[in-house]
Design a protein that fits this description.
The protein is an alpha/beta fold. The chain has helices spanning 10-16, 26-38, 59-66, 68-89, 114-129, 156-171, 192-202, 242-251, 255-270, 285-289, 293-304, 317-320, 324-336, 354-358, 378-393, 406-414, 431-439; strands spanning 48-57, 94-100, 103-110, 132-134, 137-139, 142-149, 178-180, 208-217, 223-234, 238-240, 278-282, 311-316, 340-346, 363-366, 397-401, 419-421, 429-430. The strands form three sheets. Strands 8-9-11-12-13-14-15-16 form an eight-stranded mixed β-barrel, surrounded by five helices. A five-stranded mixed sheet has the order 2-3-1-6-7, with helices on both faces. It has a two-stranded antiparallel ribbon with strand order 4-5. Helix 3 (59-66) crosses helix 4 (68-89) and helix 4 (68-89) packs antiparallel against helix 5 (114-129). The longest helix has 22 residues, at 68-89.
Length: 447
């Protein structure tokens, strides 16, 4: 349908079409995502592969009550509604495909946040649930939708497997129609068990690489520090990103050793930096679940010799959901040692302002979605201005993440953000490259 007009060859489209609905089958999904990934340079800026698996409830009941013709008519109508909705609502390229039975897959190379994709799914569910007028009568369908934001390099089969598991869980919940596929992740060419075993040896084999994302002052453009990121240089599969790395570690119950290894390597490298450059380390929900996390982390800081006053721990709202009281106590222990705390991805979730009251926070780190539109949208600027004003009232400094354009940097500086990071000034870089950057005071060194 709409997607074929966006580049699927006409003859190829006919070969892949589902006869009933006239839309492609799952093979087209595999080919389309492969095409997006191989042609990343022409993709919309900040685009990411997103997908939904849509299942229709009560389809068997409709077939029995009204006949197969009514069920087929309902499927055709739903296919048309999904395609029409995607064409109206999605900015990037997309494809809708038949997954068999009463199921459809919608994939998009879309520049949007998790929250935006959730909202799109909710609106699509409303569109599908509207009455369908057929010769046999008026039907109402009740969709269930599983959602996913694909990991870098994740195979289509892994995505579909995770979507399927999420949808199975939804089918048993009469009051819930949307669910995220946050289950197990598989990486092409390696079984889950093999990956778990590989990870256990990756730390000793020094396969976990530390990269640094530079951070800069919005007052004078000076280099102020960096956020530590992790990548797994797998000897067979090549580079595995942080998302897949931590998903594998969580499944293997190996988050603790992995986090400690990353922190130790990052502090060892940062100990060689000149001046007062700061190091930021991410804290995962699994880290905070360990009762000994504070002691182990403080031991690492002492062993590394890195000054605690130059260390920032970044926690996300997701990390706080389980037990905010315990988390506040843990953060207070760190703060008492001079370590600073940043609330990361602020604005990506539901912004529970109680966190700002309870936690000993020093920085608000804005999610990139809070920055993307500030150069063109007055409402986005108004939201940014309100957040900065609130931060000032609480004696917090604001870090703007995801600065990709000079206009965004100008607005963030004008509205009072203190620091920023993003591809405008620098991409994540190796330990050696950041050391060079630090020595020249923030001016990007030549290779």
């Amino acid at each position: 349908m709409g997607e074929r007009r966006k580049g699927l060859p006409r003859g190829h489209a006919r070969r892949l079409e589902d006869r009933l609905t006239g839309i492609p089958g799952l093979e087209a999904v595999r080919e389309r995502i492969a095409g997006w990934r191989s042609d990343a340079e022409s993709a919309p800026q900040h685009a990411h592969v997103h997908a939904m698996l849509v299942a229709l409830r009560r389809l068997d009941t409709i077939n029995m009550a009204y006949g197969a013709e009514a069920g087929d008519g309902a499927l055709e109508e739903v296919a048309g509604r999904i395609a029409h909705f995607a064409g109206e609502e999605l900015d990037g390229p997309w494809l809708v495909a038949r997954a068999g039975g009463g199921s459809f897959v919608l994939v998009a190379n879309e520049a949007c946040s998790r929250e935006r994709w959730h909202l799109v799914a909710d609106q699509l569910a409303d569109a599908i649930a509207r009455p369908i007028a057929l010769p046999t009568g008026v039907l109402r369908l009740s969709p269930r939708i599983a959602l996913i934001r694909a990991l870098t390099g994740e195979s289509v089969d892994s995505m579909l497997d995770r979507l399927g598991h999420a949808l199975t869980g939804l089918q048993d919940q009469s009051a819930t129609r949307l669910g995220w596929a946050d289950g197990e992740v598989t990486v092409p060419g390696r079984s889950a068990a093999q990956l778990e075993a590989d990870l256990l040896g990756a730390i000793d084999g020094d396969e976990i690489e530390i990269l640094f994302q530079p951070q800069f002052s919005l007052v004078d453009e000076s280099l102020t520090g960096a956020e530590a990121l992790a990548r797994w240089n797998h000897p067979v599969l090549g580079r595995i990103g942080a998302g897949a790395l931590f998903a594998i570690a969580e499944r293997a119950d190996h988050i603790g050793p992995l986090s400690r290894h990353i922190a130790a390597k990052a502090m060892a490298a940062a100990g060689q930096w000149p001046g007062d450059l700061r190091l930021s380390i991410n804290v995962t929900p699994a880290d905070l679940a360990f009762g000994t996390y504070v002691r182990q982390m403080l031991d690492l800081v002492r062993e590394s010799g890195f000054p605690p006053r130059r260390l920032t721990l970044e926690i996300t709202e997701q990390s706080l959901i389980s037990d905010i009281t315990q988390t506040a106590q843990m953060m207070a222990e760190f703060s008492s040692q001079g370590i600073r705390i940043a609330l990361d991805d602020f604005g990506a979730g539901f912004c529970n302002f109680r966190y700002l009251k309870v936690l000993p926070i020093h920085y608000l780190k804005l999610d990139r979605t809070m920055i993307e539109g500030v150069a063109t949208d007055r409402r986005d600027v108004a939201v940014l201005r309100a957040i900065v004003a609130m931060a000032r009232a609480l004696d917090l400094e604001v870090i703007a993440e995801g600065i990709e354009e000079e206009e965004q940097r100008v607005v963030a500086a004008r509205e009072g953000c203190a620091y920023y990071q993003g591809f405008l000034r620098a991409q994540p870089m190796s330990v050696a490259m950041f050391a060079k950057l630090a020595r020249v005071g923030g001016e990007k060194p030549k290779d």
